[in-house]
Amino acid sequence: MLGFLFKLVIAVAVFVFIMRIGMVMIGGLARPHPPPDPGEIRRVNLRYRCSICLTEVKMVQATEELPVPPRHCQEDMDLVAPRFE
What we know:
- This protein is α+β, with helices and mostly antiparallel strands.
- The protein folds into 2 domains: 1-31; 42-80, Rubrerythrin, domain 2 (Single Sheet), CATH 2.20.28.
- Helices cover 34% and strands 26% of the residues.
- A 3-stranded antiparallel sheet has the order 2-1-5, with no helix packed on it. A two-stranded antiparallel sheet has the order 3-4.
- A hairpin with a 2-residue loop joins strand 3 and strand 4 (75-76).
- The protein is elongated and about 75 Å long.
- The mean pLDDT is 86.
């Protein structure tokens, strides 16, 4: 009887330890990144298109005037001329 109770206590302790580690990891993923410094982000009006599936992305803020193009379908997207709005 004493051996069973000892194994039960160890099993509960291991369960609680694993759950705490998992909750800390999930909590770390749920926390948002801190906002960038005010002068670090610039307004841009760029449109990119995937040459494989034709998905379009409109970028309105970036850290550079001409940022690195985003990737889609494992390829860099192509910069397209903005439409007149």
